[in-house]
């Protein structure tokens, strides 16, 4: 039996504004260049909520950089506001309720510790040789203004994983003290 869900996956990070007309430079996550296009909206979190924007233009600037213009962001100051934020796209993800075929099937799962504290949501699987990791998107308070997201790497190792609940799409982990604060 398959379960389908729409989730937001990070595909890029806004590095800095560019010019005075609201353009900015982004850095793609590995293998996500084709995921941002002018046909579907992208999302940026404002005050903890995803806000959709349509891409007006996108110009590649090397292997993993692009110059982007979004509808609704028309000034340098508005572009400066989103510097450091992640850009998300909506993905329909199917997960098997009976088994996991690859670590990529875990994208979208939430991660919690053995005490039930939410640590974040899995956004990416990084197959680093000898050290595979899960990219976990966590929330961080930005001096009382708003909540922003950041990605932290969690080693994908059986020693840390206590349980994978396929029905709830939750992974329970027991981590060494301070691992996520590095």
Compose a concise summary of this entry.
The protein is mainly beta.
Written description of the protein model:
It is built from 1 helix and 13 strands; from the N terminus they run ββββββαβββββββ. About 3% of the residues have low confidence. The longest helix is centred in the middle third of the chain and has 6 residues. The strands form 3 sheets. The chain has a 6-stranded mixed beta sheet, with no helix packed on it. Strands 5-6-2-1-7 form a 5-stranded antiparallel beta sheet. 3% of the residues lie in helices and 53% in strands. 20% of the residues are buried. The protein folds into 2 domains: 90 residues, Beta Barrel (Elongation Factor Tu (Ef-tu), domain 3); 78 residues, Roll (SH3 type barrels), CATH 2.30.30. It starts with a strand and ends in a 9-residue tail after the last strand. By secondary structure, the protein is mostly beta strands.
Which oligomeric state applies? Answer: single chain
| CATH topology type of the largest domain | Elongation Factor Tu (Ef-tu), domain 3
Strand line-up across the major sheet: 11-10-9-8-13-12
Low-confidence stretches: 141-146
CATH class descriptor of the largest domain: Mainly Beta
Residue fraction in strands: over 45%
């Amino acid at each position: 039996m398959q379960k389908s869900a729409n989730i937001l996956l990070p595909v890029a990070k806004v590095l800095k504004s560019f010019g005075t007309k609201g353009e900015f430079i982004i850095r793609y996550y590995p293998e996500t260049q084709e995921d941002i296009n002018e046909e579907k909206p992208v999302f940026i979190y404002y005050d903890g909520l995803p806000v959709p924007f349509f891409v007006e233009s996108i110009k590649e600037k090397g292997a993993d950089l692009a110059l982007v213009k979004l509808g609704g962001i028309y000034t340098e100051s508005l572009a400066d506001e989103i510097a450091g934020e992640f850009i998300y796209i909506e993905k329909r993800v199917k997960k098997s309720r009976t088994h996991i075929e690859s670590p990529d099937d875990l994208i979208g799962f939430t991660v919690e510790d053995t005490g039930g504290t939410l640590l974040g949501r899995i956004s990416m699987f990084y197959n680093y040789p000898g050290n595979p990791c899960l990219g976990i998107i966590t929330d961080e308070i930005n001096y009382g203004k708003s909540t922003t997201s950041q990605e932290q790497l969690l080693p994908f190792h059986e020693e840390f994983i206590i349980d994978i609940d396929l029905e709830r799409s939750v992974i329970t982990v027991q981590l060494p003290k301070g691992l996520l604060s590095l």
